[in-house]
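Side project, low priority. Logging it here so it doesn't get lost.
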Amino acid sequence: MTVSLHHLPDRQLAPLLAAYGAAVAKRRLAFLLGSLVFVSVLVTAAWWVRFDVFLLVSRIGSITSYFSRLFHLDTGALVFTDPADWFWGFTPWIKKLGETLLIAYIGTVLGVIGGFCLCFLAASNLSGSRTRWVARRFLEFCRTVPEIVFALIFVLAFGLGPMAGVLALTIHTLGALGKLFTEIVENIDMKPVDGVVSTGGSWAESIRYAVLPQVLSGFATYGLLRFEMNFRGSSIMGFVGAGGIGQELLVAVRKFYYSDVSAILVMVIVTVFILDMLTARLLKRLSALG
Protein backbone atom coordinates (compact mmCIF):
# COMPACT_ATOMS: atom_id res chain seq x y z
CA MET A 1 0.00 0.00 0.00
CA THR A 2 1.47 3.35 -1.06
CA VAL A 3 1.16 6.49 1.02
CA SER A 4 1.10 9.97 -0.55
CA LEU A 5 3.89 12.27 0.55
CA HIS A 6 1.40 14.93 1.65
CA HIS A 7 -0.39 12.43 3.93
CA LEU A 8 2.72 11.74 5.97
CA PRO A 9 2.83 13.17 9.49
CA ASP A 10 4.35 16.61 9.73
CA ARG A 11 7.17 15.22 11.82
CA GLN A 12 8.27 12.93 8.92
CA LEU A 13 7.35 15.29 6.11
CA ALA A 14 9.36 18.29 7.33
CA PRO A 15 12.86 16.77 6.91
CA LEU A 16 11.94 15.38 3.48
CA LEU A 17 10.73 18.75 2.26
CA ALA A 18 13.82 20.42 3.73
CA ALA A 19 16.11 17.97 1.91
CA TYR A 20 14.19 18.46 -1.34
CA GLY A 21 14.40 22.26 -1.02
CA ALA A 22 18.13 22.05 -0.30
CA ALA A 23 18.66 19.87 -3.39
CA VAL A 24 16.66 22.25 -5.59
CA ALA A 25 18.55 25.26 -4.21
CA LYS A 26 21.86 23.49 -4.86
CA ARG A 27 20.92 22.76 -8.48
CA ARG A 28 19.76 26.33 -9.04
CA LEU A 29 22.99 27.67 -7.56
CA ALA A 30 25.03 25.36 -9.80
CA PHE A 31 23.03 26.50 -12.82
CA LEU A 32 23.49 30.17 -11.97
CA LEU A 33 27.22 29.74 -11.38
CA GLY A 34 27.59 27.82 -14.64
CA SER A 35 25.66 30.48 -16.54
CA LEU A 36 27.80 33.19 -14.95
CA VAL A 37 30.99 31.42 -15.97
CA PHE A 38 29.67 30.86 -19.50
CA VAL A 39 28.70 34.52 -19.96
CA SER A 40 32.00 35.69 -18.46
CA VAL A 41 34.02 33.52 -20.82
CA LEU A 42 31.89 34.66 -23.78
CA VAL A 43 32.33 38.36 -22.94
CA THR A 44 36.06 37.89 -22.35
CA ALA A 45 36.46 36.07 -25.68
CA ALA A 46 34.53 38.79 -27.52
CA TRP A 47 36.69 41.47 -25.90
CA TRP A 48 39.87 39.57 -26.71
CA VAL A 49 39.04 39.23 -30.41
CA ARG A 50 37.64 42.78 -30.53
CA PHE A 51 34.13 41.67 -31.48
CA ASP A 52 32.19 44.92 -31.38
CA VAL A 53 28.41 44.45 -31.36
CA PHE A 54 27.79 48.18 -31.77
CA LEU A 55 30.05 48.29 -34.83
CA LEU A 56 28.20 45.28 -36.26
CA VAL A 57 24.86 46.99 -35.85
CA SER A 58 26.09 50.30 -37.25
CA ARG A 59 27.68 48.68 -40.33
CA ILE A 60 24.97 46.13 -41.10
CA GLY A 61 23.77 48.35 -43.91
CA SER A 62 27.05 47.90 -45.80
CA ILE A 63 26.41 44.16 -45.94
CA THR A 64 22.96 44.59 -47.42
CA SER A 65 24.27 47.16 -49.90
CA TYR A 66 26.98 44.72 -51.01
CA PHE A 67 24.40 42.02 -51.68
CA SER A 68 22.35 44.59 -53.55
CA ARG A 69 25.32 45.26 -55.86
CA LEU A 70 25.76 41.52 -56.42
CA PHE A 71 22.35 41.36 -58.06
CA HIS A 72 22.72 44.38 -60.31
CA LEU A 73 24.46 44.50 -63.68
CA ASP A 74 26.88 47.25 -64.67
CA THR A 75 23.95 48.96 -66.39
CA GLY A 76 22.11 49.17 -63.07
CA ALA A 77 19.43 46.68 -64.08
CA LEU A 78 18.65 43.61 -62.00
CA VAL A 79 20.57 40.52 -63.07
CA PHE A 80 17.33 38.57 -63.59
CA THR A 81 16.28 40.94 -66.37
CA ASP A 82 19.19 39.94 -68.62
CA PRO A 83 20.41 36.37 -67.92
CA ALA A 84 22.61 36.42 -71.04
CA ASP A 85 24.59 39.37 -69.71
CA TRP A 86 24.62 37.93 -66.19
CA PHE A 87 26.07 34.57 -67.31
CA TRP A 88 28.23 35.96 -70.12
CA GLY A 89 31.11 33.68 -69.05
CA PHE A 90 29.04 30.54 -68.66
CA THR A 91 31.24 28.39 -70.93
CA PRO A 92 34.59 29.05 -69.20
CA TRP A 93 32.92 29.02 -65.79
CA ILE A 94 31.24 25.66 -66.36
CA LYS A 95 34.60 24.20 -67.38
CA LYS A 96 36.18 25.49 -64.19
CA LEU A 97 33.21 24.17 -62.23
CA GLY A 98 33.73 20.76 -63.81
CA GLU A 99 37.39 20.95 -62.84
CA THR A 100 36.36 21.73 -59.28
CA LEU A 101 34.03 18.73 -59.27
CA LEU A 102 36.80 16.44 -60.51
CA ILE A 103 39.23 17.78 -57.90
CA ALA A 104 36.69 17.00 -55.19
CA TYR A 105 35.97 13.56 -56.65
CA ILE A 106 39.58 12.43 -56.95
CA GLY A 107 40.51 13.89 -53.56
CA THR A 108 37.55 12.16 -51.93
CA VAL A 109 38.27 8.76 -53.51
CA LEU A 110 41.95 8.85 -52.53
CA GLY A 111 41.06 10.09 -49.05
CA VAL A 112 38.48 7.33 -48.58
CA ILE A 113 41.06 4.71 -49.60
CA GLY A 114 43.62 6.13 -47.17
CA GLY A 115 41.13 6.44 -44.31
CA PHE A 116 39.86 2.91 -45.01
CA CYS A 117 43.36 1.46 -44.77
CA LEU A 118 44.28 3.29 -41.57
CA CYS A 119 41.04 3.07 -39.59
CA PHE A 120 41.58 -0.60 -38.71
CA LEU A 121 45.06 0.19 -37.39
CA ALA A 122 43.69 3.09 -35.35
CA ALA A 123 40.81 1.14 -33.80
CA SER A 124 41.32 0.19 -30.16
CA ASN A 125 39.52 -3.14 -30.57
CA LEU A 126 41.60 -4.34 -33.52
CA SER A 127 45.19 -3.17 -33.11
CA GLY A 128 47.92 -2.91 -30.51
CA SER A 129 48.71 0.21 -28.53
CA ARG A 130 51.84 1.23 -30.44
CA THR A 131 50.32 0.80 -33.88
CA ARG A 132 47.15 2.55 -32.73
CA TRP A 133 49.11 5.50 -31.29
CA VAL A 134 51.07 6.06 -34.52
CA ALA A 135 47.98 5.73 -36.73
CA ARG A 136 45.92 8.12 -34.62
CA ARG A 137 48.64 10.77 -34.45
CA PHE A 138 49.01 10.63 -38.23
CA LEU A 139 45.26 11.00 -38.73
CA GLU A 140 45.21 13.93 -36.32
CA PHE A 141 47.95 15.68 -38.25
CA CYS A 142 46.16 15.18 -41.56
CA ARG A 143 42.84 16.61 -40.38
CA THR A 144 44.23 19.39 -38.16
CA VAL A 145 45.91 21.40 -40.93
CA PRO A 146 43.27 23.17 -43.10
CA GLU A 147 42.97 22.13 -46.74
CA ILE A 148 43.86 25.58 -48.01
CA VAL A 149 47.16 25.49 -46.08
CA PHE A 150 48.02 22.15 -47.65
CA ALA A 151 46.99 23.57 -51.03
CA LEU A 152 49.33 26.53 -50.59
CA ILE A 153 52.20 24.21 -49.69
CA PHE A 154 51.58 22.00 -52.71
CA VAL A 155 51.25 25.00 -55.02
CA LEU A 156 54.73 26.09 -53.93
CA ALA A 157 56.00 22.54 -54.45
CA PHE A 158 54.28 21.53 -57.70
CA GLY A 159 53.19 24.84 -59.19
CA LEU A 160 49.78 26.22 -60.03
CA GLY A 161 47.06 23.80 -61.06
CA PRO A 162 44.53 21.22 -59.89
CA MET A 163 47.17 18.75 -58.63
CA ALA A 164 47.77 20.86 -55.55
CA GLY A 165 44.05 20.92 -54.79
CA VAL A 166 43.71 17.16 -55.21
CA LEU A 167 46.61 16.46 -52.85
CA ALA A 168 45.34 18.93 -50.26
CA LEU A 169 41.84 17.43 -50.24
CA THR A 170 43.24 13.90 -50.17
CA ILE A 171 45.28 14.50 -47.03
CA HIS A 172 42.55 16.31 -45.14
CA THR A 173 39.89 13.80 -46.21
CA LEU A 174 42.15 10.94 -45.14
CA GLY A 175 42.45 12.40 -41.66
CA ALA A 176 38.78 13.29 -41.25
CA LEU A 177 37.32 10.06 -42.63
CA GLY A 178 39.98 7.98 -40.89
CA LYS A 179 38.70 9.33 -37.58
CA LEU A 180 35.05 8.71 -38.46
CA PHE A 181 35.77 5.24 -39.85
CA THR A 182 37.70 4.39 -36.68
CA GLU A 183 34.74 5.30 -34.50
CA ILE A 184 32.48 3.06 -36.61
CA VAL A 185 34.93 0.15 -36.30
CA GLU A 186 35.24 0.60 -32.54
CA ASN A 187 31.46 0.22 -32.13
CA ILE A 188 31.06 -3.07 -33.99
CA ASP A 189 29.92 -6.33 -32.45
CA MET A 190 33.11 -8.26 -31.63
CA LYS A 191 31.45 -11.68 -31.50
CA PRO A 192 31.89 -12.33 -35.27
CA VAL A 193 35.54 -11.28 -34.98
CA ASP A 194 36.09 -13.67 -32.08
CA GLY A 195 34.40 -16.40 -34.08
CA VAL A 196 36.74 -15.96 -37.05
CA VAL A 197 39.82 -15.84 -34.80
CA SER A 198 38.73 -18.94 -32.87
CA THR A 199 38.56 -20.95 -36.09
CA GLY A 200 42.14 -20.02 -36.96
CA GLY A 201 41.46 -17.02 -39.14
CA SER A 202 44.12 -14.33 -39.53
CA TRP A 203 43.77 -10.66 -38.66
CA ALA A 204 43.14 -9.80 -42.32
CA GLU A 205 40.50 -12.52 -42.59
CA SER A 206 38.72 -11.25 -39.48
CA ILE A 207 38.61 -7.80 -41.09
CA ARG A 208 37.30 -9.20 -44.35
CA TYR A 209 34.63 -11.55 -43.04
CA ALA A 210 33.67 -10.14 -39.62
CA VAL A 211 34.29 -6.38 -39.68
CA LEU A 212 33.58 -5.20 -43.21
CA PRO A 213 29.99 -6.49 -43.37
CA GLN A 214 29.20 -4.39 -40.29
CA VAL A 215 30.86 -1.15 -41.35
CA LEU A 216 30.58 -0.79 -45.13
CA SER A 217 27.24 1.03 -45.08
CA GLY A 218 28.55 3.57 -42.57
CA PHE A 219 31.72 4.04 -44.59
CA ALA A 220 29.69 4.71 -47.74
CA THR A 221 27.49 7.23 -45.92
CA TYR A 222 30.43 9.24 -44.61
CA GLY A 223 32.24 9.00 -47.95
CA LEU A 224 29.32 10.47 -49.88
CA LEU A 225 28.82 13.25 -47.36
CA ARG A 226 32.52 14.04 -47.49
CA PHE A 227 32.39 14.32 -51.28
CA GLU A 228 29.75 17.03 -50.97
CA MET A 229 31.88 18.84 -48.38
CA ASN A 230 34.99 18.53 -50.53
CA PHE A 231 33.24 20.15 -53.45
CA ARG A 232 32.56 23.20 -51.32
CA GLY A 233 36.13 23.12 -50.07
CA SER A 234 37.61 22.80 -53.56
CA SER A 235 35.57 25.82 -54.65
CA ILE A 236 37.97 28.09 -52.78
CA MET A 237 41.17 26.21 -53.62
CA GLY A 238 41.63 28.55 -56.55
CA PHE A 239 42.25 31.39 -54.10
CA VAL A 240 45.79 30.02 -53.70
CA GLY A 241 46.15 28.84 -57.31
CA ALA A 242 45.07 25.22 -56.80
CA GLY A 243 42.67 25.17 -59.75
CA GLY A 244 38.92 25.15 -60.05
CA ILE A 245 36.20 27.78 -60.06
CA GLY A 246 37.83 29.56 -57.13
CA GLN A 247 40.30 31.24 -59.48
CA GLU A 248 37.49 32.86 -61.46
CA LEU A 249 35.71 33.84 -58.25
CA LEU A 250 38.85 35.45 -56.84
CA VAL A 251 39.40 37.47 -60.01
CA ALA A 252 35.79 38.68 -59.94
CA VAL A 253 36.04 39.68 -56.28
CA ARG A 254 39.33 41.52 -56.72
CA LYS A 255 38.10 43.44 -59.76
CA PHE A 256 34.73 44.26 -58.17
CA TYR A 257 32.77 42.44 -60.89
CA TYR A 258 29.73 42.08 -58.65
CA SER A 259 27.41 40.41 -61.12
CA ASP A 260 30.13 37.90 -62.01
CA VAL A 261 30.52 37.04 -58.34
CA SER A 262 26.81 36.39 -57.95
CA ALA A 263 26.67 34.34 -61.17
CA ILE A 264 29.54 32.11 -60.07
CA LEU A 265 28.02 31.70 -56.61
CA VAL A 266 24.68 30.72 -58.12
CA MET A 267 26.39 28.06 -60.23
CA VAL A 268 28.21 26.68 -57.19
CA ILE A 269 25.02 26.64 -55.10
CA VAL A 270 23.02 24.90 -57.81
CA THR A 271 25.76 22.27 -58.13
CA VAL A 272 25.70 21.70 -54.37
CA PHE A 273 21.91 21.25 -54.52
CA ILE A 274 22.28 18.65 -57.28
CA LEU A 275 25.02 16.81 -55.39
CA ASP A 276 22.91 16.80 -52.25
CA MET A 277 19.95 15.26 -54.06
CA LEU A 278 22.11 12.65 -55.80
CA THR A 279 23.91 11.63 -52.61
CA ALA A 280 20.59 11.40 -50.77
CA ARG A 281 19.24 9.01 -53.42
CA LEU A 282 22.43 6.94 -53.30
CA LEU A 283 22.25 6.73 -49.52
CA LYS A 284 18.65 5.52 -49.70
CA ARG A 285 19.62 2.78 -52.13
CA LEU A 286 22.56 1.75 -49.98
CA SER A 287 20.38 1.62 -46.87
CA ALA A 288 17.84 -0.50 -48.78
CA LEU A 289 20.58 -2.91 -49.86
CA GLY A 290 21.91 -3.05 -46.30
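Brief comment: Residues 10-48 form the longest helix (39 residues).
Revisit when time allows.
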